[in-house]
Amino acid sequence: MNIFSVLLIAATANAFSQILLKLAVTDIGSKQYKNGIEKIKSVAVNANFWLGTILFLVSLSIYIYMLGEHEITRIFPSMAMTFVFVVILSSKILGERMNFWRISGVFSILIGSVLLSFVGE
Predict the structure, then answer these.
(1) At a CB cut-off of 8 Å and minimum separation 6, what does 27 contact?
(2) Of 69, 72, 79, 78, which Cα lies nearest the Cα of 117?
(3) pLDDT digits (tens, 9 = 90+) for 74-92
(4) What is the pTM of this model?
(5) Burial class (CB within 10 angstroms; exposed 0-12, middle 13-18, buried 19+) of 32
(6) How does pLDDT run across 19-58, given as a tens digit for each residue?
């Protein structure tokens, strides 16, 4: 598997982790709790929280491995793809609005990430 494919998997896992964590805190925040212990218990049984945490750790593990194998100047910019995926997923899954500026930002990040990571090798 090439470097781009591995980093794409890591960025995708990270993006999904962020969406799942957002869903978890939204669910937890929408309820009334008598005390902090009840709130902590609700986190402990929230499937979105745990799946989001696992995906985040998978992404982090891949990222750390890739840092050991390649130059940081190639690895770090490509992880910016997480921002691109979060914007797209937040629109599709969370119903957040896309506008001209967000779309422009996504394209800017995409172009910058490719230029910094893969062009001119």
Answers:
(1) 46, 48
(2) 78
(3) 888 888 889 999 999 999 9
(4) 0.84
(5) exposed
(6) 999 998 887 776 777 777 877 778 888 999 999 999 999 9
Q: Alpha helices, DSSP H only, in the chain?
A: 3-29, 36-44, 47-69, 72-78, 81-93, 100-118
Instruction: Please say whether the beta carbons of 12 and 86 come within 8 A.
Output: no
Q: Compute the radius of gyration of the chain from its Cα atoms.
A: 17
pLDDT of residue 42: 82
> For residue 93, is pLDDT > 90?
yes
Number of Cβ within 10 Å of residue 45's Cβ equals: 8
